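Researcher: Let's do a round of design. I'm pasting the structure tokens now; please hold your answer until I've finished.
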């Protein structure tokens, strides 16, 4: 009888503790997502959620080449950002896992330091560095590399990729670091005893076993960058317009919420496809390891 009471009390306590999270998830996240999906199949008649549903927004998105072009550009830029972030994050994570030693806490502090500042401030900082009269141009002129400032650093996709890769680097470093830390040292010792070189140990042991962290970090970087609109608007210029900029414009200047919601739903479908591909790759790597 007492054991039943303890179990009942424990279940009630767990239910009470999980209730705030459940309310936030269903009341804010899922409910808001449902509103966006419903709104995507409405027309811009001012009534928003009252009236008949329509496929006109989706038909326009998938039939107009402009939106396909912007979506492909968003995928291309986000893919480059993800690749650049993972490539630069892996050596940092490897150093943290195998070489940092007593300095690990300091390096982790430096890695997470960007989280202490606003995302907008970091974007503004890169704009100051890359601007026509910015830090980089001034340094080039001071070193005598060229005589006049260049406009090649700003208002192009490269500026967007560099800024986003810097902003989301910690999101890739930490998952890879965690994956590297889970590798048993005995495997590396056994490889060394069997005559494997450091390059062979990395290629046959470290890299395959760390791939779940690499794939997780890549996904964490890819998902938010494909919908980013602040960085392309401030650093990219017209040639770097991404799908997030179109969504923001529909909800803002155009005041066409249904079409903006339809663009958001189309973007979510693309992200779901990317997540499914990453999950498939994760299963394949998991079976190999």
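Researcher: That's everything. Go ahead.
Model: Designed sequence:
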């Amino acid at each position: 009888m007492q054991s039943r009471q303890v179990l009942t009390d424990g279940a009630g306590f767990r239910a009470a503790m999980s209730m705030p999270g459940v309310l936030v998830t269903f009341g804010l996240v899922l409910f808001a997502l449902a509103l966006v999906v419903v709104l995507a199949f409405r027309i811009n008649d001012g009534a928003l959620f009252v009236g008949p549903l329509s496929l006109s927004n989706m038909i326009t998105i998938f039939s107009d080449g402009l939106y396909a072009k912007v979506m492909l550009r968003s995928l291309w830029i986000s893919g480059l950002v993800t690749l650049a972030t993972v490539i630069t994050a892996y050596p940092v994570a490897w150093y943290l896992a195998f070489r940092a030693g007593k300095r690990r806490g300091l390096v982790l502090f430096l890695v997470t330091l960007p989280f202490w500042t606003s995302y907008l401030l970091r974007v503004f900082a890169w704009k100051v560095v890359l601007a026509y009269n910015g830090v980089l141009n001034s340094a080039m002129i001071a070193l005598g590399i060229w005589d006049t400032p260049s406009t090649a650093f700003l208002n192009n996709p490269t500026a967007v990729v560099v800024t986003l890769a810097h902003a989301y680097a910690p999101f890739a470093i930490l998952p890879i670091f965690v994956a590297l830390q889970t590798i048993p040292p005995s495997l590396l010792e056994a490889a060394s005893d069997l005559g494997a070189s450091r390059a062979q140990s990395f290629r046959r042991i470290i890299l395959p076993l760390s791939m779940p962290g690499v794939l997780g970090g890549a996904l964490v970087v890819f998902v938010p960058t494909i919908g980013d609109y602040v960085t392309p608007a401030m650093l990219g210029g017209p040639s770097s317009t991404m799908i997030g900029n179109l969504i923001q414009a529909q909800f803002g200047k155009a005041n066409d919420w249904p079409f903006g919601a339809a663009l958001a739903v189309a973007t979510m479908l693309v992200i779901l496809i990317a997540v499914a591909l990453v999950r498939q790759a994760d299963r394949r790597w998991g079976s190999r390891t």
